[in-house]
From TrEMBL:
Naturally occurring in which organism (per UniProt): Amylolactobacillus amylotrophicus DSM 20534
Superkingdom field: Bacteria
Name the UniProt record assigns to this protein: RNA pseudouridylate synthase
Family assignment from sequence similarity: Belongs to the pseudouridine synthase RluA family.
Residue ranges of coiled coil: none
InterPro entries: PsdUridine_synth_cat_dom_sf, PsdUridine_synth_RsuA/RluA, RluA_PseudoU_synthase
Molecular function terms, GO-annotated: catalytic activity, acting on RNA; pseudouridine synthase activity; RNA binding
PANTHER family: MITOCHONDRIAL RNA PSEUDOURIDINE SYNTHASE, RNA PSEUDOURIDYLATE SYNTHASE DOMAIN-CONTAINING PROTEIN 1
Database matches in SUPFAM superfamilies: Pseudouridine synthase (SSF55120)
CDD domains: PseudoU_synth_RluA_like
Residue ranges of every copy of the Pseudouridine synthase RsuA/RluA-like domain listed in the record: 91-249
Catalytic reaction annotation: a uridine in RNA = a pseudouridine in RNA
Length: 304
């Protein structure tokens, strides 16, 4: 398996000069890797090593060589099915994951997940997919996948520092006596902590002792006849089932959600047919660059 990776990027002409150390910090490179780049003289400016306290000037070319990069992730068995590619560059690929499909396998014998599909796509290029985040099995939409192990901690740090933004669409049922603000296009915040539901290991619940969680939503439209609404949502955290739990807690459960919507018959509790929740847009910075990318599902695929 490949363990050495080379990245070349231009320091933007519109930025003021920064030290090599500051540039590595901007790129969210882990301190251990910064150390190796320095002692191995593997960070070059215009083709020559420059110490970490030296300045990088606008327009100069940066080369970073990562050697002996190790990953604990195993390789994924190709499924034989190709994913729907929405965006791709040299380091990442964004796919449209269908509802009912897991993001990645939990067992070595699972071969029908989104990562297995991406393994099929990358195999001819002798590349393997790397997990950067996940979507619930019943949720559809954009899933960002790394093409090499270098980008994984960089993208994970974007999630932690909230420089990566994820946006969702959801159709919800309007339960009687719901506690939601249904004013159109007004931003609303849910900040209740989420923990394990002790009565059902599949579920999460609002718990004072749970992990902090923040969800923002606004109402795009209301169907009074069907007693449903279309919501736009964004996440500041990424807890398991976060959107589903938060919306259900204010009386707006996601339509067709077998775990959290009381309108869904108990006979469908094991359903994997999908819920009306869609990750429709991603905003992130390309690894080891100053370029931001916004990836959006084609409008004809959006929840209406």
């Amino acid at each position: 398996m490949k363990t050495s990776y080379k990245f070349v990027t231009q320091y933007p002409k519109e930025l003021e000069q920064k030290s090599v150390r500051e540039v590595m910090q901007d790129f969210l490179i882990p301190k251990k890797w910064q150390h190796y780049l320095r002692i191995n003289r593997d960070i070059l400016v215009n083709g020559h090593y420059r110490s970490v306290n030296s300045m990088v000037n606008p327009g100069e070319l940066l080369t970073l060589n990562f050697n002996a990069v190790e990953s604990t992730q195993h390789e994924y068995t190709p499924s034989g099915h190709l994913p729907e590619i929405i965006y791709e560059d040299e380091d990442v690929v964004v796919i449209n994951k269908p509802h009912g499909q897991k993001s990645h396998p939990n067992r070595l014998d699972e071969t029908n997940t989104a990562l297995n599909d991406v393994a099929t796509y990358l195999a001819p290029m002798e590349q393997t997919p790397y997990v950067t985040h996940r979507l619930d099995m019943l949720t559809s939409g954009l899933l960002l996948i790394g093409k090499n192990p270098v980008v994984v901690p960089l993208l994970n740090r974007q999630l932690v520092q909230k420089t990566m933004q994820r946006f969702y669409l959801a159709r919800v049922n309007l339960l009687p006596n719901n506690k939601a603000n249904l004013t159109l296009n007004k931003s609303n915040y849910i900040e209740t902590p989420i923990g394990q539901d002790i009565s059902d290991k599949r579920k999460r619940a609002i718990k004072e002792t749970g992990l902090s969680a923040q969800t923002t939503y606004r109402v795009l439209k209301i169907d009074a006849k069907q007693q449903t609404a279309l919501l736009h949502l964004s996440l500041a955290t990424g807890r398991t089932h976060q959107i589903r739990v938060h919306l259900a807690s204010i009386g707006l459960p996601v339509c067709r959600d077998p775990l959290y919507n009381p309108l869904v018959p108990p006979t469908l509790a094991q359903s994997t047919s999908g819920i009306e929740l869609q990750a429709y847009q991603l905003h992130f910075r390309k690894p080891l660059s100053y370029e931001f990318v916004t990836v959006t599902l084609p409008k004809q695929l959006w929840l209406k």
